Amino acid sequence: MIAHRGGGSTAPENTIAALAAGLRHGYRAVEFDVMLSRDGIGVIMHDPDFGRTVAGTGSIAATDAADIARLDAGSWFGSEFAGEPVPLFVPFAEYCKSHGIWMNVEIKPAPGHDEATGRHVAETVRRLFPAESGAGSDARGCASGLPLLSSFSAAALRAARAAAPELPRAIAFEGLPDNWERQARELGVLSVHVDHVQLTPALAQAVKAAGFGLFCYTVNDPGRARTLLSWGVDAICTDRIDLLPADFK
């Protein structure tokens, strides 16, 4: 089980507070989003524009990282989180590494920044995990503890592969297109990520038979989670870390 955006529905998404909430619930695996600031620094944010999790107008791609880091990313969720900042990618990943939290890093490029974001994420992860990324990984497994780089953007994944081919990658879809396997093989990915609502037993079997890992998002019902696991799904991302324990079977 993987905590969606750090702490699911228990804390403001994509913050250090979310990671701490995940740890309190026993989660040692998280998913989070990275996009680039105007000055080319990775920040932990899902939306390209301000207004939902941070107040005001503007966008990540048009704002420098130092200014983004001063924004309040907690008040929208609850007054007890007022002042919780937008994290930068490096300290956020370092927090995960120091606490033994495995990372699914979703490369979430703002429009027009696919290649730059993919390259930045891959280069940053390689720098943060020098021993693990130099251990002969062939991007077919995460046994060494390397983060998994995922994206809906094929261009971002190509750039990540060019920058650090040894890092494991995953391609994400809402529903599986007819050419999903061709895309997955062309990109050399470890796993395929899909919206659980659009998955069927036959599609799950096809992904597994093709030799890929299968990851579903965002599953918040225990019964549905059990069904997906029975279909052979390897990992489930959830908002309800308070309802679905990290060792859910």
From TrEMBL:
InterPro entries: GP_PDE_dom, PLC-like_Pdiesterase_TIM-brl. Keywords: Hydrolase. Its EC number is 3.1.4.46. It is an enzyme of class 3 (hydrolase). One of its GO terms (molecular function) is glycerophosphodiester phosphodiesterase activity. CDD domains: GDPD_EcUgpQ_like. GO terms for biological process: lipid metabolic process. Residues 1-248 form the GP-PDE domain. This is Glycerophosphoryl diester phosphodiesterase. The lineage of its organism: Bacteria, Pseudomonadati, Pseudomonadota, Betaproteobacteria, Burkholderiales.
